[in-house]
Amino acid sequence: MDNQQLLTMVTQMTLEEKVAQLMQLAAPFFEGAEGEGQITGPMKSMGVTEEMVRNSGSVLGYAGAEGTIAVQKAHLKKNRLGIPLLFMADIVHGFKTIFPIPLAIGCSWDLPLAERSAEIAAREAAVSGVHVTYAPMVDLVRDARWGRVMESTGEDPYLNSELARAFVRGFQGQNLREDVQRVAACVKHFAAYGLSEGGRDYNTVDLSEWQLREYYLPAYRAALDEGCEMVMTSFNTVDGVPASGNTRLMRKLLREEWGFDGVLISDWGAVKELIPHGVAEDEAEAAYKAIQAGVDIEMMTSCYVHHLPRLVREGRVEEEIIDEAVLRILQLKERLGLFERPHRGADPEAEKEIVFCAEHRAAARELAEKSCVLLKNERGVLPLARGQRVALVGPFAQSGDILGPWSWTGSRKDAVRLDTAMKAAAAEPGDISVAEGSGIEAMTEAQWAEAARAAADVDVIVLALGESSEMSGEAGSRADITLPAAQLELLRRMKALGKPVAVVLFNGRPLDLRGVYDTADAVLEAWFPGSEGGAAIAALLYGDANPSGRLSMSFPAAVGQIPVYYNHFSTGRPLGAPDAQERYVSHYLDLPNEPLLPFGFGLSYTTFIYGKPQLSGKIMTPDRPLELSVVLTNAGPAEGEETVQLYIRDWVGDTVRPVKELKAFAKVRLAAGESSEVRFTVTEQMLRYTHQNLEFASDAGQFSVFVGPNSRDAEELRFRLEKGPVTSGIRLQGASLGNNQHEQMGSEMR
Ligand code: BGC
């Protein structure tokens, strides 16, 4: 159908039909769905009639080829104009083949594999009847107390943006109409949800527009630049107004400034939540504010269906606004090819073959191997030698709870557990003795006695510790992010046996590792590694694979430092050398300023040596970028992969500038003894940032470029950016040019 035909369809719809198209309901409302008619709890109070369901536009959280086909068929029989339903679901890090959680994928820094994970998730979801995934979640995160950091790819705007693009490419492919084994992506949660105060979920967010543009918006923008079809609003406030009723954010910035013309959906119940937020008196006002802001679909509440028709008839809402929202939804259905193929990719036969197939599981394993981060490795504990006797102890030794939150379609019983994989990887299965040792939150003396027996006669102890998946994810905030006391006690007692101890951590957030990092000899951060997690970890522990993950979020020295992140400003009183003993500087009396482990950090079983980096010149101009080269040598015993990271510092800006900002990275695989020259082009575009007047531009002046293995240990080189007129041999500095000059320099709106 062309746009004219879609417009005609809109004119044929009654006002009630149009408004129902904007409502999204869960499957129990629909004929033919599993659980049909089981409308309980808050769903009951929605007061949704049969007629509204018949005219509704989309279904939330339903998958399965046969089920979705049955629902679509029944719907098309009843819907007067034959408008198909959209099936949307949270396919966040895999469908049945579960990949590592997004924070772990962030730590892989592997864009092709991230893209492939989304492509596989799309393929499995699409053959199971899903059309749209509520992903990628690209909220920038700095507070590990917030349980949803596991859904994000971390604290850096550049890395998040690159991953956002990779996910969108993987989900959507090139052509959604032709390629029915892809799904439309919905970037979320717009905007700045990651900044919930105190790390408490659903809490207030308040930040300057400058900070919003500089750090928080780039990843959403990157997803949209990559063609992401949909956007989801966030639960939080932005500038005092909840996002779902925020006209400045949605209509002005997203739609008018960025030109986003796709479908904007509210988060679950977020339209009605304008009432408890205290910006709408009742459902009618909530509907009014959300539709004015530009929210097309109301997820799981019914303010629109109950109130918009009357608001239109009373002349308070223009019917044109409703028509536009309906048209956008019909256009999305058209781009997905649903008018011609209402069942699209749903295919019960393909579903059996494709979902959780060996090829997909192999990709999940590869990404899990690349997502784990080796945080510490002393006394040569890792890799384990074949033939060593190993005690595998801890609540995650035999657990299938390794998929992580947001894996509703995955099955824990299909996950490869660590004990199974370790026994398969060892020279003899009998080399591994297994005990639980403790639960997640409590330890009994019987558990301890069993663990002590398992460890009595071994060479090395591997402790599998962590948080259950319920301890992170949505509504999974924690104020104390240390490991539960029972597990710390288990570690302490195990260590007291005098044998080398390696800890493998399963968790959804950077933890406060006091009691772990200082006690264990080795620490491998495995996150929630997904369906093939056990196999990936066993390969890493035995050295069949070499750890290559690098942290995409800093690990605090203690929870009291949070928010702690590498790209902070220097303040007027930066902390000097650690032994400077100054009081009146920006610091804590009882904690260092630095995190325990910085952004970009990760160890390997081999040693990478960086040569002296070289810069092609000391002066850059907008049309003369600089080349940076550095020779990287694998001087250790094993083949390995290094992530070479490039950071920038702008020494004098119109606004304050971060002490370091990631601008590029390269993943380099080298055999033992091999060297390679790694080259980067450092461009003027990399030096642009948001000015006081919100323009995005660079300033002439002094810069540093850093290259190295992480955000802390990078080697620094200086250069100058020159632009603009020369006065008596001295070039004017951008900082003193004023705003007009920035305009002449050619700015780029973000
Ligand atoms: C979450 C979203 C999710 C939606 C639909 C909400 O509670 O915040 O991330 O996509 O539910 O399941």
From TrEMBL:
<dbReference type="Pfam" id="PF01915">
    <property type="entry name" value="Glyco_hydro_3_C"/>
</dbReference>
<comment type="similarity">
    <text>Belongs to the glycosyl hydrolase 3 family.</text>
</comment>
<feature type="domain" description="Fibronectin type III-like">
    <location>
        <begin position="642"/>
        <end position="711"/>
    </location>
</feature>
<protein>
    <recommendedName>
        <fullName>beta-glucosidase</fullName>
        <ecNumber>3.2.1.21</ecNumber>
    </recommendedName>
</protein>
<dbReference type="GO" id="GO:0008422">
    <property type="term" value="F:beta-glucosidase activity"/>
</dbReference>
<dbReference type="InterPro" id="IPR017853">
    <property type="entry name" value="GH"/>
</dbReference>
<dbReference type="InterPro" id="IPR026891">
    <property type="entry name" value="Fn3-like"/>
</dbReference>
<dbReference type="InterPro" id="IPR051915">
    <property type="entry name" value="Cellulose_Degrad_GH3"/>
</dbReference>
<keyword id="KW-0732">Signal</keyword>
<dbReference type="InterPro" id="IPR013783">
    <property type="entry name" value="Ig-like_fold"/>
</dbReference>
<keyword id="KW-0378">Hydrolase</keyword>
<dbReference type="InterPro" id="IPR002772">
    <property type="entry name" value="Glyco_hydro_3_C"/>
</dbReference>
<dbReference type="InterPro" id="IPR001764">
    <property type="entry name" value="Glyco_hydro_3_N"/>
</dbReference>
<keyword id="KW-0326">Glycosidase</keyword>
<dbReference type="InterPro" id="IPR036881">
    <property type="entry name" value="Glyco_hydro_3_C_sf"/>
</dbReference>
<dbReference type="Pfam" id="PF00933">
    <property type="entry name" value="Glyco_hydro_3"/>
</dbReference>
<dbReference type="InterPro" id="IPR036962">
    <property type="entry name" value="Glyco_hydro_3_N_sf"/>
</dbReference>
<dbReference type="GO" id="GO:0009251">
    <property type="term" value="P:glucan catabolic process"/>
</dbReference>
<feature type="region of interest" description="Disordered">
    <location>
        <begin position="730"/>
        <end position="750"/>
    </location>
</feature>
<dbReference type="Pfam" id="PF14310">
    <property type="entry name" value="Fn3-like"/>
</dbReference>
<dbReference type="InterPro" id="IPR019800">
    <property type="entry name" value="Glyco_hydro_3_AS"/>
</dbReference>
